[in-house]
From TrEMBL, chains A, C:
Keyword Oxidoreductase: yes
PANTHER family: PYRUVATE DEHYDROGENASE E1 COMPONENT BETA SUBUNIT (PTHR43257), PYRUVATE DEHYDROGENASE E1 COMPONENT SUBUNIT BETA (PTHR43257:SF2)
Enzyme Commission code(s) on record: 1.2.4.1
Enzymatic class: oxidoreductase
Cofactor(s), names only, from the UniProt record: thiamine diphosphate
Residue span(s) of domain Transketolase-like pyrimidine-binding: 4-179
Protein name: Pyruvate dehydrogenase E1 component beta subunit
Organism: Kutzneria viridogrisea
Keyword match Oxidoreductase: yes
Chain segments annotated as coiled-coil in the UniProt record: none
Gene Ontology MF, one: pyruvate dehydrogenase (acetyl-transferring) activity
UniProt keyword list: Oxidoreductase, Pyruvate, Thiamine pyrophosphate
From TrEMBL, chains B, D:
Pfam families found in the cross-reference section: E1_dh
Domain of life of the organism encoding this protein: Bacteria
Needed co-factor(s): thiamine diphosphate
Annotated source species: Kutzneria viridogrisea
Domain Dehydrogenase E1 component: 46-332
UniProt entry tagged with the keyword Oxidoreductase: yes
Top-level enzyme category: oxidoreductase
Molecular functions per Gene Ontology: pyruvate dehydrogenase (acetyl-transferring) activity
Name of the featured protein: Pyruvate dehydrogenase E1 component alpha subunit
Transmembrane helix in keyword set: no
Length: 337, 365, 337, 365
C-alpha cells in the first residue's frame, strides 16, 4: 500500500468517475490545462479531453447555473469552486435552484451534481481563501453536505457524492490536501450519511468533521496520557446527519465536546450540540460544550494560529466536562461557552 | 477588429418591422430574415386569439379567488406566440412567470400552467414531457440553465435549440451577463428573447438602462443580436425563426430584443396607476399585436370571419374548460411535503414526517 | 394613541431618519414612485425627492455593492431587498464586504448601512418569497441582525439600526406587516442587543423572534388556561445576542422551548438551544426543545399551514418538558427533536 | 438609435497607439484624445523605473520568505503608472491584488502596500488618507464599490472621479455587468480600466470571451469605451486622462480596455509553463512598455542618461528601504483579533477575548 495524499485521492476519484460514467463532466476555473490551483484535477483534460474536463469563464453563478442546465440535459456535472468565499457569487443558484428543483418539480427534474468547495484555513491563506462556509449549505434543505477527513474517505465519499441522486456540496478541508495515509482507495457504494468512530473511548465523546478531525484525534491522544479515554466521532456527512452513531456514542460516554474550525456562533456545531442535548439529555453529566474558531472574519495568516481551535482549546473544553465535583476557580463565573 | 465582424454583431439601428401598425405590409425584409408565410401567420393568429382568451380567463380567476396571483401577458402575445411557434418538438423553452400564454401555445395544459399561481406545487407540468422548464421566479437565473441545457444538446449531437425568455428589468442581473458569455464561449444553441415591455414592475426602462437599446448588449459577448417590433407577429416569427435555425445548425447564440408593452398591471396585485399614466397605455393599445395581424391577414384575403369565429370558439372552449377545472380546490396531501426534498427522505425528514402525521391525527381527533 | 401597523411604523422610521439625517439614502427595486411592493417606502420620494429615495436597476449585488461605495463616501444607505430569496444574489457583497470591511481596514473604513429584508412566510406567497433566511446572516461575523415583532419595536429597532455604527441586516417578518398595535412611536436611542420579556411566567421559557413571537404569545395564553405559566422572550436582536436576559429567564424557569419559523436543521434556533444548555445546564429539568418549520424548501401556499409551527406544535413541545414523572407513550422512542 | 450615438459609444476598431513598439511616434492622435506632454511622459518614465524596481524587490521577498505571495505587475506598468498619474489628489483608485505598482506610484508606502501579501492584516494603509480602496480579492466586487463612491462624489458636488481597475477574467463576473449598468444609469464619474493581460491565472482570453474585444461591452450599457495598447504609456495617459476629465466634468462613466501582458506567472506560487509557452512570452517582451517609453524620450531628446540613472537610484533606495523594513516580522497582537469586527465588541466577542487571554497566559506560563 502506498502513502496517498487527500489531493491524490480526490484526483483518483474524479478520474475513476470520468472513466466509468461518460455523463460525468468536470469543469470550473483553471481545472483544465492547469489542473486546478490545488491540482485536484491534474491530468484529467489530458486523459479525457477538453470535452470532459474543461475551463469555464470566470463566473461562479455562471458555473453553477450552467451545471444546472447540463444536469437537466442528462449530464453529471462535478464543478469546482476555486475557494470557499468564491462560491458566494453562486449562492442564489445553489440555494434557489440546485437545492430546490427536485422538490419544485415533484421529482420530474432531478439535477444530481457535485459542487466541490475547498474550505477552511490553516494554510496561511489570505482573506476570502479560508472561510468555513459549510453552515450556509447545511442550513439549506435539499442539499447534501459531505466533508472527508482522510484520503480514503476523500476517495470513497467523492465517488459516493458523484453517484448520489441528489446535489452534494463536497467540502474539502484544504489543510488536509497534503495529509497522507497508507491506504488502498476503495469505493464500496455505501450511501452518504454515516459517521465514523475514529477512536473508541468511554469517558467523553469528541464530535468533529473535516479539518477538525485530526485536531480531535490529537487531543484524544494527549488526553489518554492523562488517563482520559476519549471517543472521536468523524461526522463525514453533515447532511444527512448520522444521529444514530452520535447519539449512541454520547449516551455511552455521557459527555460531549463538539469541535469545529468554523466561527462558533450559529455554526454547524450549534446544530450538533442542540441535537445531542435533545436526544441524550438524561445521559449527560455536563453540558455539551462547543469548541471552535472565534466569531470574527477569518484573520490574517500571522494570527490564524490564535484563532483556530487547537489541541489545547479542545482539552480545556474537556476539562470543563465536570468529571469531578471539585470546583474550578477559572470557570465559576460561568461567562464562557 | 474588422468592421464587418462588428457590423454583423450589431442589431439593426431600428427595430425590425414587417407589418405596420395598421396591418399593411412594410416593404422590404432586412437581409438574413425571411417573411413568414401566410399559413404561418394564420397559425399564429389562431393561437393568439386563444392565448388572449386564456389570459383574460386567468385574470378573471384572480378576481374569483381561484388564482392567487397572475402576471398577465396581455399586449405581449406577438412575442409569446412567436416564441412557441418557432419551437420544434425537440427544442426547449425557458419561460418566466410572465409567459403563461407562451406555455399554452406550446401545448402545456392550461391548468398545469397555472398550478404555481393558484398556490399549488411550484411546477404543474413535467418539464421533460413538454420540454418547458419551470416558470422561473428568481430573475435571470433561468438563462444560465437554458445555456447549460443548450450545451447539453450540442454535446449529444442533437439538432435542437433552446429559447430563453427574460424581461427587460432582469437583463440588469449578473446572471444575464454570465449566460450570454457562457453561451458565446461554448457556442451554445440558445436564443435569448428579451421581452422589453418598458417596465420592471414600476421601474421604467430609462431607470434600468442607458443603452441605445438592450440588443446592443450582444456585441460585448460576440453574440449576434437584433431588435424587433415586439408587437409585430410577422417580424417576431421572422427574427426568432432565423435565430433558432442558426442555433440549431451550429451558428451559436443569438440575442433578440422585442419592443413591446405590458397592457395590464405587473400582476393583479399591482396598481399600475401609481407609476404610469393612461395616456401611455392608450398609445400602446393602438399597437396591439392582435388587430394588427388580423387586419393584415384580412387585407391579403387570407383570413375570413369564419376563421376568426372558429378561433374564438376554440378560445371559449379552452376558457370554459379552464374555469371548470379551476373551480375546485385541489387536494394537496400535507404528507407529500417530504417526498421530493431528496430522492429518498433523510432520517431527519422521516422523523419530521412522523411528527406531522401525529399532528394531523391530533387535529382530526 | 392610534392603532399603527408594522408597515406604518417602518415607514415612519424611514421618514424620520431621512428628515433628521441628510446622509440617509433609501434605495432599491421599486422603492421610489411605487413605494415598494409592501409600501414600506410609500411617499418618501414625494417628500424627500429622487435624490434621497430612489429606484435602482434590478440587481441585488449591484444594490448592495453600490451601497458599500456610497457608505465609503459618507452616506448612510438603507436598502431594500424585495424578498428574502432575492437577497441571495447579493450574498457575496454582504458576506465578503459588508461584514468585513471594518475589520479588513482596522476600523479606518466603516460602512454603516441597513439592509432591509422582508422574510419568512405565512402570507400565501409562492416559492422564493417566504424563505427564513436569517441563518445566513447570523452565521456571518461582522453583521448585526435584528428582527422586530411589534410595530413599536419595528420603529425603534429600525431607527437604532440606522444609527448603528455597524452594518445591520434588518429582517422584517412579512406576515406581521399588517399587524396593529396601539402605540406611540418612540425612539429611545437604546443600542441594539437587548431582548424583551413579552410575558413573565415561572414554569417554562419560550424563546421566539420575529414572526414566531405572536405564536409563542398565543401558545402561552392557551397554556395559561391549562394552568401552565409560560414566560415569553422576544429576542429582537439575534446578533448581538442577549445572553443575559435569556440565561436569567431559563435559569429561573428551568425549562425552555425555542420557537422559530425557519427550517430547524442548523437554523438559528440551534444556536439558541446550544447556548441555553451550555449556560443553564444545571438549572434545566428537561432538554431544550426546538420547534420550527420542517427541513424542506418553503412549501406552496396551500400547504404552508402544515409546515409552519403553530400554537399546537409549540404546546406539544411544552408537553414534552417533563413536568411530571409519568411517562408519555408518544415520546418513549426518543426519535423526535 | 441614430448611427452617430452608436458610433460614439463604440471603441476604435483597433487599439489606440501613440508610440510604436520601437518608440517612434505613431502619427496622428485619434480625435478626442490629446498627446501627453513631454514632462508628463518624463514623470511617468521615472515612476515606471521605480515601480519596476519595486516589483522585482517584491518578487525577491517571496523567495526570501518575507512575502507569502506576490502577484507581479511586471509587463503591465504602462497601465498601472498611467492609472496613478491621471489621478488628482481628490480622486480615488480601486485596485485589485495585481496593482501594487499602481499603489506605489500613487504614493502609498510600499510596506503598507505589501501588508496583505506578507500575511499581516488585510489592508495596510488608511484608504481615506491615500484615497485608495483596499486591494480587492473577490473578483469584480470592487467595481460596484467604485461606482457607489463615484456617485457619492457627484452627490456632494465634488469635481473628482474614481478609477476602478479590473482584470480581463474578472469581466466575466456578474458584478462587472451590474457596475457598468449602475454607473451609466446614475451617470457616475467612474472610469473602468480593464487590464487585459491575456490570462485569468491559466485561462486564456479565448476561453473567457468571444467578444471582438472587451471594450465592446460598453455600448450595451450606454457607456463610452475605448481600447488601447496597454504597453504604450503615452496612449494610456491620453485615453485614461481624457476619460477621467470627462467623468469629473459630469460626462459619466467610461470603459477602457488595455491590451497588455503579464510577463510573470500569476503569482510566485503559480507555474505558468503549464499553460503558456515561452515563445509567447518572448513576443511580448518585445512590447515591453519601459524600453519603448525610454527609447521615445531619448529619441525626442527629452531623457538623458543622467535622468535614467537618477530614477534607477531612486528605485534602489526604495528597494533597499523596503528590504530593510520587510526584514523583520511584524508583531501582531492576537488580542487585536476582536477589535474591529464591530465598532464595539459584542458581549460574545468580549467573552471570546477573555478566553483567548486565558489561552495565551497558559501558553506563556
Ligand atoms: C432576483 C430577483 N429579484 C427581484 C425579484 C422581484 N421581481 C419580480 S418581477 C420583477 C420585475 C421584473 O421585470 P422584468 O424583468 O422587466 O419582467 P416583466 O415583469 O416586465 O415581464 C421583480 C423586481 C425577483 N423575482 N427575482
Ligand atoms: C470571485 C472570485 N472568484 C475566483 C477568484 C480566484 N482568482 C483569483 S485571481 C483569478 C484570475 C483573475 O484573472 P484576471 O481578472 O484576468 O486578473 P489577473 O490576475 O490576470 O490580473 C482567480 C480566478 C477570486 N479571487 N474571486
Ligand atoms: Mg419588463
Ligand atoms: Mg488577466
Amino acid at each position: 500500500m502506498a502513502a496517498t495524499s487527500m489531493a491524490q485521492a480526490l484526483n483518483a476519484a474524479l478520474r475513476d468517475a470520468l472513466s466509468e460514467n461518460e455523463r460525468v463532466l468536470v469543469f470550473g476555473e483553471d481545472v483544465g490545462q492547469l489542473g486546478g490551483v490545488f491540482r485536484i484535477t491534474d491530468g484529467l483534460t489530458a486523459q479525457f479531453g477538453e470535452q470532459r474536463c474543461f475551463d469555464t469563464p470566470l463566473a461562479e453563478a455562471g458555473i453553477v447555473g450552467y451545471a444546472v442546465g447540463l444536469a437537466m440535459g442528462g449530464f453529471l456535472p462535478v464543478v469546482e469552486m476555486q475557494f470557499d468565499a468564491f462560491a458566494y457569487p453562486a449562492f442564489e443558484q445553489i440555494a434557489s435552484h440546485v437545492a430546490k428543483i427536485r422538490n419544485r418539480t415533484r421529482g420530474a427534474l432531478s439535477i444530481p451534481m457535485v459542487i466541490r468547495v475547498p474550505y477552511a484555513g490553516g494554510i496561511g491563506g489570505v482573506e476570502h481563501h479560508c472561510d468555513s462556509s459549510e453552515v450556509y449549505y447545511v442550513a439549506t434543505p435539499g442539499l447534501k453536505v459531505v466533508t472527508p477527513a482522510t484520503p480514503a474517505d476523500a476517495y470513497t465519499l467523492l465517488r459516493a457524492a458523484i453517484d448520489d441522486p441528489d446535489p452534494v456540496v463536497f467540502m474539502e478541508p484544504k489543510k488536509l490536501y497534503w495529509s497522507k495515509e497508507d491506504t488502498e482507495l476503495r469505493y464500496d457504494s455505501e450511501p452518504l450519511g454515516r459517521a465514523a468512530i475514529r477512536r473508541s473511548g468511554k469517558d467523553a465523546t469528541l464530535i468533529a468533521y473535516g479539518p477538525s478531525v485530526p485536531v480531535a484525534m490529537q487531543a484524544a491522544k494527549v488526553a489518554a496520557e492523562d488517563g482520559l479515554d476519549l471517543e472521536v466521532v468523524d461526522l463525514r456527512s453533515l447532511v444527512p446527519f448520522d444521529d444514530e452513531t452520535v447519539t449512541a456514542s454520547v449516551r455511552r460516554t455521557g459527555r460531549c465536546v463538539v469541535v469545529q474550525e468554523a466561527q462558533g456562533f450559529a455554526g454547524f456545531g450549534a446544530e450538533v450540540a442542540a441535537r445531542v442535548q435533545e436526544r441524550c439529555f438524561h445521559s449527560l453529566s455536563a453540558p455539551v460544550i462547543r469548541v471552535g474558531g472565534f466569531d470574527i472574519p477569518y484573520p490574517p495568516p500571522m494570527l490564524e494560529h490564535s484563532h483556530l481551535p487547537g489541541v489545547d482549546r479542545v482539552l480545556d473544553a474537556v476539562d470543563r466536562l465536570q468529571f469531578s465535583d471539585e470546583p474550578d476557580g477559572r470557570y465559576l463565573t460561568g461567562v464562557r461557552a | 477588429m474588422s468592421d464587418s465582424v462588428v457590423q454583423d454583431l450589431l442589431p439593426s439601428p431600428t427595430p425590425v418591422r414587417l407589418l405596420a401598425e395598421d396591418g399593411t405590409t412594410v416593404e422590404g425584409c432586412p437581409t438574413g430574415y425571411e417573411r413568414p408565410t401566410v399559413p404561418q401567420l394564420l397559425a399564429a393568429h389562431r393561437k393568439m386569439v386563444i392565448g388572449r382568451r386564456f389570459d383574460a380567463q386567468a385574470t378573471a380567476l384572480t378576481k374569483q379567488g381561484r388564482l392567487a396571483v397572475y402576471p398577465s401577458s396581455h399586449g405581449q402575445e406577438a412575442c409569446q406566440i412567436a416564441a412557441a411557434e418557432v419551437l420544434g418538438p425537440g427544442d426547449w423553452l425557458f419561460p418566466t412567470y410572465r409567459d403563461s400564454v407562451a406555455l399554452v401555445a406550446r401545448g402545456v395544459d392550461p391548468v398545469e400552467v397555472l398550478t404555481l399561481l393558484r398556490g399549488d406545487w411550484h411546477c404543474g407540468y413535467d418539464p421533460k414531457a413538454v420540454r418547458v422548464a419551470p416558470q422561473c421566479t428568481p430573475l435571470a437565473t433561468q438563462v444560465l440553465h437554458a445555456t447549460g441545457l443548450a450545451s447539453a444538446m450540442r454535446r449529444k449531437g442533437e439538432n435542437t435549440a433552446v429559447l430563453a425568455l427574460i424581461g427587460d428589468g432582469a437583463t440588469s442581473e449578473g446572471d444575464f451577463h454570465e449566460a450570454l458569455n457562457f453561451a458565446a464561449v461554448f457556442n451554445a444553441p440558445v436564443v435569448f428573447l428579451v421581452q422589453n415591455n418598458g417596465y420592471a414592475i414600476s421601474v421604467p426602462l430609462s431607470k434600468q438602462s442607458a443603452a441605445p437599446s438592450l440588443a446592443y448588449k450582444g456585441i460585448g459577448y460576440g453574440v449576434r443580436s437584433e431588435q424587433v417590433d415586439g408587437n409585430d407577429t410577422a417580424a417576431m416569427l421572422a427574427v426568432l425563426g432565423t435565430a433558432m435555425d442558426r442555433a440549431r445548425s451550429g451558428g451559436g447564440p443569438f440575442l433578440v430584443e422585442a419592443h413591446t408593452y405590458r397592457l395590464e398591471a405587473h400582476t393583479n396585485a399591482d396598481d399600475a396607476t401609481r407609476y404610469r399614466d393612461q395616456e401611455e397605455v392608450r398609445g400602446w393599445l393602438a399597437a396591439d399585436p392582435l388587430p394588427r395581424l388580423e387586419k393584415h391577414l384580412r387585407d391579403v384575403g387570407a383570413l375570413t370571419d369564419e376563421d376568426v369565429r372558429a378561433a374564438q370558439e376554440e378560445g371559449e372552449r379552452l376558457a370554459a374548460d379552464l374555469r371548470q377545472r379551476m373551480n375546485a380546490d385541489p387536494h394537496l396531501d400535507p404528507m407529500s411535503l417530504f417526498d421530493h426534498v431528496y430522492a429518498v427522505p433523510t432520517p431527519q425528514l422521516a422523523e419530521q414526517r412522523d411528527l406531522l402525521a401525529t399532528e394531523l391525527k391530533a387535529q382530526e381527533g
